[in-house]
Write a structure and sequence with these properties.
This protein is α/β, with parallel strands linked by helices. The chain has one domain. About 35% of the residues lie in helices and about 20% in strands. The chain has a five-stranded mixed β-sheet with strand order 3-2-1-5-4. Strand 4 and strand 5 form a beta hairpin. The chain is globular and about 65 Å long. The relative contact order is 0.21.
């Protein structure tokens, strides 16, 4: 049955879909270079998992719950330079998309320069409870 040759074996688009992982050090350095005065933010999505060394994968943005502090978001030149260097930018996720009591489930992680960040166990919770 069928001796006809295949043009490509396997997954032809895999080369386009594979990406370099975002390193823990790149995220830390990005945060360290971004802030010069102390600020506290809640970070959601995949970055808390990378910072906690639970996963290793590519990330394009650091999602701040609520809004990115004004002192950061208005420094366009710095943000452009850091995006070019690290391939990261700030995004936002609105707190109303999290369940009630989400802040009580957050844990302080670290202070980098003037940037104090917390990780939300909601991200871990949602990942751990996704149907297989």
């Amino acid at each position: 049955m069928g001796e006809e040759p295949f043009e490509e074996i396997g997954y032809p688009s895999i080369g386009r879909r594979l990406m370099e992982k975002t390193s823990l050090d790149d995220i830390r350095q990005f945060l360290f270079e971004t802030v010069r005065t102390p600020v506290e933010v809640y970070i959601g999505d995949v970055v808390p998992l990378i910072l906690s060394d639970y996963i290793s994968r590519h990330a394009e943005d650091i999602d701040v719950v609520g809004e990115v502090p004004q002192s950061i978001r208005e420094n366009y030149e710095l943000l452009d330079r850091l995006q070019t260097r690290y391939g990261l930018h700030f995004g936002t996720v609105q707190p109303q998309y999290y369940p009630c009591g989400w802040k009580q489930r957050c844990h302080y992680v670290d202070t980098l320069g003037g940037f104090r960040y917390t990780r939300s166990i909601l991200t871990i919770f949602f990942l751990a409870n996704c149907p297989a």
